[in-house]
Amino acid sequence: MIEKRLGQGETPAEKALEEAIARVPGWEGRAALYAPLVGGLMNGNFRVALDGDARRYFIKVPGAGSEKFIDRKAAHAAADAGATSLDQVAEDSLAPPFKGEGNHGGSNDDLLTIVRRVEALGTFLDTEDGRNLLAGTRRAANILAAEQKKGTAVAASVDPALLREEAEKALFAAVNQAEKDAGEAIQKEDFSAAMLALSALREPVDSFFDKVLVNDEDQAVRANRLALLERIRAATGQVADFSKIAG
Predict the structure, then answer these.
(1) Which of 176, 180, 181 is nearest to 192 (CA)?
(2) 187, part of any domain
(3) How many domains does the chain have?
(4) pTM for this entry
(5) Are residues 9 and 97 in the same domain?
(6) Looking at the structure, do residues 239 and 135 belong to the same domain, yes or no?
(7) What are the C-alpha distances in Å from 134 to residues 19, 240, 241, 247?
């Protein structure tokens, strides 16, 4: 592991890191050593040691586009930040210190879990199923946003008795299964399996939009179909907010 001192940064990530360190209250003017860590897909991850401080800090410099995959507030909460959390520095670029190194902040395992989730999502979105499901989920989210803005009623839950078309019945069954399977996989931190579960939604989502008119004249049917769109968003939302992913 090659360590550098402040002022020796060469890459954009290293220079951003040094700027972040300079902005931490109490760190101004202090000597520090830093070294890159492996495992980041889109972010620059660094371990930082300050002179006179026995703790070691993990600092994450967000890469371009990484906000598409990670809710940074949720990530910090998942990291179980303690009183010495540094998550307000450099526009959320810092994570808490490593657990087990003189502090009870977030653990490296938590951070690696986030990396694995991002990697699995990125791999999925590189497939045809992933790209099409992304498009379908964004379409569902856009329809919901437009209708909610107009004050259109959305049912609290999907009523199977109001499902008239075979395509919406098939989608309802697929969402139930995918949501269950993806949720179980995420609990086991098997993010590849979670993506596989979500990939089963691609065909029924496409079929629904091809064959079903969401804005039905019957208000109850329309509200029920909007609730079904909400279920698509909820299922994929277990992994990421697809509406924020460019593409």
Answers:
(1) 181
(2) yes
(3) 2
(4) 0.58
(5) yes
(6) yes
(7) 35, 11, 10, 8
- Cα–Cα distance, 157 to 147 (Å, whole number): 16
CA 45-48-52 angle, 5° bins: 170
Determine how many CB atoms are found less than 10 A away from the CB of residue 222. Answer: 20
Q: How far apart are the first and last CA of the chain?
A: 36
3-state SS class at 218: coil
Q: Quick one: 145 and 63 in the same domain?
A: no
Q: Which residues pair with 46 in a beta bridge?
A: 36, 59
Residue type, 193: A
CATH code of residue 139: 1.10.730.10
Residues 90/115, Cβ–Cβ less than 8 Å: no
Q: Tell me which residue range forms the domain holding 205.
A: 127-244
| pLDDT tens digit sequence for 55-91 | 777 776 665 544 444 444 444 443 333 323 333 333 3
Tell me the pLDDT tens digit for each residue of 142-162: 999 999 899 999 999 999 999
Closest to 117 measured CA to CA, from 46, 176, 52, 191: 191
